[in-house]
């Protein structure tokens, strides 16, 4: 299954502590913004240092906690990532990005039922603008749980919101393949490859990519890749 992590940093800094002085907030904001720059440059350790400095100055800032959680995911420290995201959503129960990241963390832990609950929590925010991401992730989790029809429904909900979103089509191809609906599986993966900017509709390029990737992959994702390669032969 595709990577489910949503790495999304807000371009502004939200203070969650009304009593924090303006000078302190400004310093925390500067550290946060520098951390975002480092992260985008791939300098993850430097980003971590800056986010920690920002959090020391303003310990209850949900945005910094979410950013730190993403860094912990990069470090594969799933327990600390979970803790950071949980604190972020405790501070703001409408913080959909943090709920999505929490769900992705649970997915890495293999806690798929918890992942579904987190992704659904992200959808409770009526003004969340990236609902397709949550629905796609719910589809991924249901697929892992063997709840194929519910996975298909979730992927379709993602597509309803963004029709050229390629990821749910990959998920649909796996679901249809599992159900033995091979024609629908082939149609779905063709649609995915046509929309995926990595391939631009080139099936040969996609096949080569999956062939190479399966040499570096294991466990559940390896099965997905093998299934993609099989579906591409239909």
What's the total number of strands?
0
| Overall radius of gyration | 19 Å
What is the CATH architecture annotation of one domain? Alpha Horseshoe
User: How far is the first residue's CA from the last residue's CA?
Assistant: 20 Å
Shape: elongated
Given the structure, what is the number of helices? 12
Structural class label: mainly alpha
- Name given to the CATH homologous superfamily of one domain: Tetratricopeptide repeat domain
- Mean pLDDT over the full residue set: 92
| The CATH class of one domain | Mainly Alpha
Summarize the amount of helix as a percent range: over 70%
Task: Return the string of H and E elements.
Answer: HHHHHHHHHHHH
Parts with pLDDT < 50 across at least 5 consecutive residues:
10-19
CATH topology of one domain: Serine Threonine Protein Phosphatase 5, Tetratricopeptide repeat
The major sheet is characterized as: none
Classify the beta-strand content into a percent band: under 5%
């Amino acid at each position: 299954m595709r990577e489910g992590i949503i790495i999304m940093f807000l371009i502004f800094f939200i203070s969650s502590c009304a009593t924090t002085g303006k000078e302190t907030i400004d310093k925390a904001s500067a550290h946060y913004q520098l951390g975002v720059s480092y992260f985008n440059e791939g300098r993850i350790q430097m980003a971590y240092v800056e986010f920690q400095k920002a959090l020391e100055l303003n310990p209850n800032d949900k945005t910094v906690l979410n950013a730190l959680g993403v860094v912990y995911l990069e470090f594969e420290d799933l327990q600390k990532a979970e803790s950071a995201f949980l604190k972020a959503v405790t501070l703001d129960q409408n913080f959909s990005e943090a709920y999505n990241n929490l769900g992705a963390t649970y997915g890495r832990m293999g806690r798929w039922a918890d992942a579904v609950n987190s992704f659904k929590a992200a959808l409770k925010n009526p003004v969340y603008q990236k609902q397709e991401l949550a629905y796609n992730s719910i589809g991924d989790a249901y697929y892992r749980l063997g709840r194929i029809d519910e996975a298909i429904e979730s992927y379709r909900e993602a597509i309803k919101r963004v029709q050229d979103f390629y990821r749910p089509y990959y998920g649909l191809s796996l679901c249809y393949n599992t159900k033995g609906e091979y024609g629908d599986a082939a149609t779905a993966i063709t649609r995915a490859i046509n929309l995926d900017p990595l391939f631009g509709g080139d099936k040969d390029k996609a096949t080569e990519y999956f062939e190479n990737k399966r040499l570096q992959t294991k466990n559940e994702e390896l099965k997905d890749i093998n299934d993609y390669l099989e579906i591409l032969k239909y």
